[in-house]
Design brief:
Layout lengths: L1 E4 L1 H11 L3 E9 L10 E7 L16 H4 L3 E7 L4 E3 L6 E6 L1 H15 L6 H7 L2 E6 L10 H4 L9 E5 L5 E5 L2 H9 L3 E2 L32 H5 L5 H5 L6 E8 L2 E11 L20 H20 L9 H5 L6 H6 L1 H10 L1
Parallel strand pairs: 2-6, 6-7, 7-8
Antiparallel strand pairs: 1-9, 1-10, 2-3, 4-5, 4-12, 8-9, 11-12
C-alpha cells in the first residue's frame, strides 16, 4: 500500500521501530574519509530521517551490519567456552536495489552453500528491509547491465521528494496499520529506479574458464597493489578468517573472532608446509573476476556481481572492474585463436 508521508510522520514511525529494531542506513561520518578533512558515507545506526543520505552512494556496503568486520563468536577459558551475546534487537536496513540483490548473494553463501551459518542466520532472521529508490545512476554504477536495478522484495520502499516529504510503498501489515493510524495520505507508489547507467558491461555468452589463459591478466601484475579495498567494499564478498585473541593477563583465556579476509592480499592462499598460490596480483584479479561473473553463475544461475561500482570508486590505482569485464570478450577471442 502506498503513502505520501511527511518527515514528522516518518520519524514517528522510526520511534515505533526502535522498540524492537536498530535502524541502519547510509549516513555521513564527518572526518571519516580516507583522506584528511574528508567525510565518509557508510552504514550506521540512525534515529531520525534527516540522518539518511539519499543523494549519494555509500562508500561501503551494508554487509558489515550482518557480517561485522570483526565478530566475536565465543569466549574461552581452560575448561569452558561461552557463546558471545547476539544483539537484543533486530535491524531495519535501508538498501538500494543492487544491495538487495547482494543480500541474496550473501544468503546463498552463508545459508545455502552447505550447512547454514549459525551466526549469520541468527541476524538474518531478524531484519526488515527498506528499499531506497534511485532517481538517477551514480558514478561507476552498472546495475542495469547486471539486471539488479529493480527489486520488489522489500518490506517498505522509500523515495524522498524535493519538498522533503516521502513516498513509501509498504508491504508489512503492522507498518501499514501504523501509517494509516497516523493519518498518512494514501496513494499509488512505484519505487524509483534507474533504467540506464553511464557505464555498461557485457559478459560474454561464450565465457569459459579458458579465459584464464589470456594475457590480459598480466596487466594487473603491475597495476594492482593488492590492498584488498575492492573486497572490503564489495557487498557480495564473503571470505573471512578466524583469529584467537589471548588476553595478556592470562594466556589461556581469550576469544575467537571471525575477521574479514581478502583474496587480493598477501597470505590469503598460504597453506600448510609453506606453500602459497596466486602470488601474482594478476592471478588474484583473475580469480576474483571469474568468481564474480563465471563460476558463481554456473552454480547459481546468476552473476555474483551486482554492479554497484564501489570497487571502482575505492581503488587507489583506478582499476575498473567494469572495464575488466568488458575485456573478457577479446580475451576469449585471444585464447580460441591460440
Amino acid at each position: 500500500m502506498g503513502f505520501h508521508i511527511t518527515d514528522m510522520q516518518l520519524n514517528v514511525l522510526f520511534q515505533t521501530w526502535q522498540t524492537n529494531y536498530h535502524i541502519y542506513a547510509p549516513r555521513n561520518f564527518s572526518g571519516g574519509g580516507r583522506f584528511s578533512d574528508t567525510d565518509c558515507i557508510r552504514y550506521g545506526k540512525i534515529e531520525h530521517a534527516d540522518e539518511i543520505v539519499f543523494d549519494k552512494k555509500s562508500d561501503y556496503s551494508f554487509k558489515e551490519v550482518l557480517t561485522p568486520v570483526s565478530q566475536t563468536l565465543f569466549f574461552f577459558t581452560e575448561g569452558q567456552t561461552k557463546e558471545a551475546d547476539f544483539p537484543q534487537k533486530g535491524a531495519v536496513i535501508f538498501l538500494r536495489s543492487c544491495d538487495l540483490y547482494a543480500l541474496k548473494r550473501l544468503d546463498d553463501m552463508y545459508l545455502h552453500n552447505g550447512p547454514a551459518d549459525y551466526y549469520y542466520q541468527h541476524l538474518r532472521d531478524n531484519i526488515k528491509i527498506v528499499l531506497m529508490g534511485c532517481e538517477h545512476s551514480f558514478e561507476n554504477c552498472f546495475c542495469v547491465s547486471m539486471g539488479t536495478n529493480v527489486s520488489t522484495k522489500y518490506d517498505m520502499s522509500i523515495d524522498r521528494q524535493p519538498d522533503g516529504t516521502y513516498l513509501v510503498d509498504c508491504k508489512d501489515e503492522a507498518w501499514v496499520k501504523q501509517l494509516v493510524q497516523a493519518g498518512c495520505e494514501q496513494q499509488e507508489v512505484i519505487p524509483a529506479h534507474v533504467t540506464e547507467n553511464q557505464v555498461t558491461v557485457q559478459v560474454p555468452e561464450n565465457l569459459t574458464a579458458e579465459v584464464a589463459k589470456s594475457t590480459m591478466w598480466e596487466e594487473y601484475n603491475s597495476r594492482c597493489i593488492n590492498c584488498g579495498r575492492c573486497n572490503f567494499v564489495c557487498p557480495t564478498c564473503t571470505c573471512f578468517t578466524m583469529q584467537d585473541l589471548f588476553y595478556s593477563e592470562n594466556g589461556k583465556v581469550g576469544e575467537r573472532r571471525r575477521i574479514w579476509a581478502s583474496c587480493m592480499v598477501d597470505g590469503f592462499t598460504d597453506v600448510a608446509g609453506g606453500g602459497s598460490y596466486r602470488k601474482k596480483n594478476g592471478e588474484r584479479m583473475r580469480f576474483k573476476v571469474l568468481h564474480k561473473v563465471l563460476d558463481y553463475k554456473q552454480r547459481n544461475g546468476y552473476h555474483m556481481c551486482v554492479g554497484c561500482g564501489r570497487c571502482d570508486d575505492i581503488c587507489p590505482e583506478y582499476i575498473s572492474f567494469s572495464g575488466c569485464i568488458n575485456k573478457l570478450q577479446s580475451a576469449m577471442t585471444e585464447v580460441t585463436e591460440q
